[in-house]
């Protein structure tokens, strides 16, 4: 490994979903480390569950850049801009417009909203952010290869991947064949040769976006979901690359089908050497859903919390574990982050602390990294703490602004407060309890809470 610092660099170990083990990471080419992560479908504001893989793999991206050099890492995160949900929203929101123009408005607006949210979360922009609709040509090429090699077939203007043509299908998800068959048989199209076969290309319905179809199909069509990521990763990272990431919910069928398409198209043993998946997110102990009324977007949370608090709250739980998103957790994250910034030096070391780096190199062990950060709060570690916070994507400005906006406002000067306290002390000395109580209540109405201490003094604090 090579890096930009004289500091000794730890060995990176990552948990690989493909092998179900934590392994030493060995890039195909240390001078060109390549990572692909499934990005959003741009039809509405992203919810907090969408933020988890973005934050997790942003952290991994930062770590890879530190270990291998920023110029030697290529991170691709796609944008899915062709989807039934996009079509439905476009038709509903812009009923008078041509559907293609309406779709363009929805996708570009939603993508801009997504980028604004991620900027607030301290997320770096990936090196490449391809849109699905810009890679239809690559999708057709892959489909043509699969048909020519017998791994796909045409039926009723659809192109379908033939799952039985791949003997080790299911290797990534490790799902029993019966489970996969049970899911596939929920709604089996009559043109499928096997219940588990999945769509690579389908005909466009009237009014929907459509492109010239592959495999000799005359009618215009549109790609299936899975082929998009195979095409975009191939275009920007090659036939085989180092790391593929995403949420645990994508392992099957999306990632399993990506593996099938790419491996069969290129006759390769693997698509990506390492597959990483973050755990599920629930809200206050329940699965997030609109029906339960606990569906929370990133934008809604940013209205009440600085992005750094959301980011820190996400990183407190190890990425592979499920996370329970709670108000209490956010409050604890805000308090801890405030402590870190209060303790950190103004002048930072240009790198993370070695102990923190060691923890992150152990499969992104963020809970241990945060524990190590607490140990840096004393005088000797203040510069290292500042450098670590910057490395992790945290800056004090947003938190300080948020604290100032939440600070209680008092309608009286400190000089006047001191005068009124002296008047109250005098009233109590004269045993004029009515006057003492009146002054206390008047100050409380102005946002000042008094406290009579055991040593006979009186102190005050602004009331929230």
TrEMBL record:
Compartments it resides in: Cytoplasm
All copies of domain Cysteinyl-tRNA ligase anticodon binding, residue ranges: 422-456
Pfam families in alphabetical order: CysS_C, tRNA-synt_1e
Keywords: Aminoacyl-tRNA synthetase, ATP-binding, Cytoplasm, Ligase, Metal-binding, Nucleotide-binding, Protein biosynthesis, Zinc
Broad enzyme group: ligase
Superkingdom assignment: Bacteria
Quaternary data: Monomer.
Protein name in the entry: Cysteine--tRNA ligase
Source lineage: Bacteria, Pseudomonadati, Pseudomonadota, Alphaproteobacteria, Hyphomicrobiales
């Amino acid at each position: 490994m090579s890096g930009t610092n004289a500091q000794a660099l730890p060995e990176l170990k990552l948990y690989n979903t493909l092998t179900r083990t934590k392994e030493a990471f060995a890039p195909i080419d240390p001078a060109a480390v390549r990572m692909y992560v499934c990005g959003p479908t741009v039809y509405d504001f992203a919810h907090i569950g969408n933020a988890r893989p973005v934050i997790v793999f942003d952290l991994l991206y930062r770590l890879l850049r530190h270990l291998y050099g920023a110029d030697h890492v290529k991170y691709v995160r796609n944008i899915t801009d062709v989807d039934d949900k996009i079509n439905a929203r476009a038709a509903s929101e812009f009923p008078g417009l041509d559907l293609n123009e309406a779709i363009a408005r929805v996708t570009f607006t939603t993508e801009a909203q997504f980028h604004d949210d991620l900027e607030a979360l301290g997320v770096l922009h990936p090196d490449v952010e391809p849109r699905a609709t810009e890679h239809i040509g690559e999708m057709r090429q892959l489909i043509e290869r699969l048909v020519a090699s017998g791994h796909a077939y045409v039926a009723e203007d659809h192109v379908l991947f033939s799952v039985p043509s791949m003997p080790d299908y299911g290797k990534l998800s490790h799902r029993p064949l019966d489970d996969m068959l049970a899911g596939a048989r929920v709604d089996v199209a009559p043109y499928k040769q096997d219940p588990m076969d999945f769509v690579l290309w389908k005909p466009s319905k009237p009014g929907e976006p459509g492109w010239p179809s592959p495999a000799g199909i005359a009618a215009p069509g549109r790609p299936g979901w899975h082929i998009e990521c195979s095409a975009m990763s191939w275009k920007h990272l090659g036939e085989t690359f180092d790391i593929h990431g995403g949420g645990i919910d994508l392992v099957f069928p999306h990632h399993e089908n990506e593996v099938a398409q790419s491996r069969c198209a290129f006759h390769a043993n693997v698509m990506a050497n390492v597959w990483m998946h973050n755990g599920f997110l629930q809200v206050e102990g329940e699965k997030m859903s609109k029906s339960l009324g606990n569906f929370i977007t990133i934008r809604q949370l940013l209205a009440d919390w600085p992005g750094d608090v959301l980011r820190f709250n996400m990183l407190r739980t190890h990425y592979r574990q499920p996370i329970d998103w709670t108000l209490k957790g956010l409050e604890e994250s805000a308090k801890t982050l405030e402590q870190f910034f209060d303790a950190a030096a103004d002048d930072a070391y240009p790198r993370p602390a070695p102990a923190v780096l060691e923890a992150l190199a152990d499969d992104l062990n963020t809970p241990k990294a945060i524990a190590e950060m607490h140990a840096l709060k004393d005088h000797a570690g203040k510069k290292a703490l500042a450098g670590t916070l910057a490395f992790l994507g945290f800056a004090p400005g947003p938190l300080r602004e948020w604290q100032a906006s939440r600070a209680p406002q008092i309608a009286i000067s400190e000089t006047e407060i001191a005068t009124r306290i002296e008047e109250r002390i005098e009233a109590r000395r004269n045993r004029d309890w009515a006057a003492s109580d009146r002054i206390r209540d008047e100050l409380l109405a102005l946002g000042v809470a008094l406290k009579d201490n055991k040593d006979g003094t009186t102190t005050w604090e602004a009331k929230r």
